[in-house]
Amino acid sequence: MKALTSELKLQLDQWREILPLDCLGDIPPVTAFTGLPGSSQLTTILSEPFAEGFTLSWIEEQQKQYLTDVRAALDTIHQQAITISERRNVQARGCRTAKPGVRMATFPIGDFVLAATAIKGGSKLSLYWRGPKRVVRPLNDYTFEVQDICAPYTVTVRHASRLKFYREAGRGFTEDLVAHALHGEGGHLEIFVQWIGLDAGEASWEPASVIFEDVPQLVRKFVAESRPDHLTRRMWTKLSPDDPIEDIERRQPDRGRRKRRI
């Protein structure tokens, strides 16, 4: 009734004018204005039956079928997403491989390689190549298991980007140990190393533990030829606590002392 009064722009107290009066021939207002058949006011209380009857088993079957259809649709969506992701990954790897200088080498079983270990120096990371090691098993195209060729024959997993083919001529041999120092920031000891094939200006400070692991005899010679002080004794005590520095000095022939820079 409010809708009709608003549509006809009538006052609320003029509601009598839109009732089915005799002047309308007993036609409901909704029929007079819209042409739709009128409904009884009792339909809101006594509604006519219009719903179909269903059994509980039929409802359960419909629910199961609905869930099955939803699962099939989700599986299809997930499979499409996986396919697209794999295709994009393959394309990205192909684009990267096509660039010059980024193709990683493949290492067959039995090859000898050098493995890189990250060493933190100050606020930066550097790679130190150790080896040779032997490739024992490829895990995938980018990961390999490598084994030390000396006891205890430790096996480690390395990424291809941290491996390179071993060449005897390409190894960096230390020519002389010039000096040693205590690194103030990290608290570790370092040795000033002069490398064969490089100029004197390219000598570098290297961790004492790493140099001692690679060339222990050369480190012993450096300690014996250096004038013993608290830094030298401290370094040797940490590197080889079971080998007193006095024994090294006695085994070393008396020769001219090398000058040492700190």
Automatic annotation (TrEMBL):
PROSITE patterns: CHROMO_2 (PS50013). It comes from the Eukaryota. Residues 172-234 form the Chromo domain. Residues 243-262 are annotated as: Disordered. CDD domains: CD_CSD. InterPro entries: Chromo-like_dom_sf, Chromo/chromo_shadow_dom. This is Chromo domain-containing protein. It comes from Phytophthora sojae (strain P6497) (Soybean stem and root rot agent).
